[in-house]
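Data deposition worksheet. Section B asks for the primary sequence of the deposited chain exactly as it was used as input, without tags or linkers unless they were present during the calculation. Section C holds the resulting structure in token form. Section D is free text for depositor observations; keep each observation to a single sentence. Incomplete worksheets are returned to the depositor.
Section A, Depositor: J.P.
Section B:
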Amino acid sequence: MDNHTEKNYQLTVKGNVKMLTMMDSFATIANYNLLSNGPNAIKPELQEYILEEKEVKLTEYFDPNTYQLIEYVNKLAKIYSRQHVCINAAGAIKGLLNMPEIKGKWEVLKRELMHVNPVAAFEVIRHKDRELNNPVEVVENLENTHFMHLFLYAFAINPNDAESKRQQLVRDRMGIGFSMPVIQTFTAEKTEDGHTINTEATLDTGGRVDKNLITRVTGQKELDIKHYTRAVFKHNENGELTAAEMSVFEQLNNDYKSDLYLQLELV
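Section C:
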């Protein structure tokens, strides 16, 4: 990839979620600008990127409460609308260079929340203050956003390897906050204008899941955990990601299920 490139992407997210008696479907469209700054000056083994979220729209929803919830989540997420990150060769974020800017945005939003409803905002503020004082947690959350999840998922896969496998811990995409052991299989193929990487991931039944955490958060004691991911990543001749599609199915049990579809396109 060139040292300095600028790309614009559009991300479409569609989801179907069941949590106990609540069932909902939704869709969002977001626009992003991604600037590649090349190697970091101090640690040249890391690549610098600046990601800016330009706009997020909720385009479909079934439950009116979904609109309010996603608008609220987006408001909190706006403090991360600009991310200046360093990424290593394995596709992991190893540095966030604009943390002071993010904390400044949070202080402004915090005052707004306190003004509107200090009692209701108390727990949210306490949680976000704790998160922003824990750089490791901040980075983990950034890696788990929909855009970065797609951008980094096959980041380190060699297009010259016909097939490769790896065991990985991935955060659940239902938003519960636990890690799930999966086995990922990648297959690469050359195309006329670059290469394509196809991916499948299934639950690693030999891995460990923090079931106590899941029970504590959801109240569910009887678990039947499932995970399946299928994705396609298209790259041009310079190795730049031009399009990606991913479908993720996750289940805790029959009362907690999620179908998620992500589509990223260069615009």
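Section D:
The longest helix spans residues 99-116.
The CA atoms of residues 252 and 263 lie 24 Å apart.
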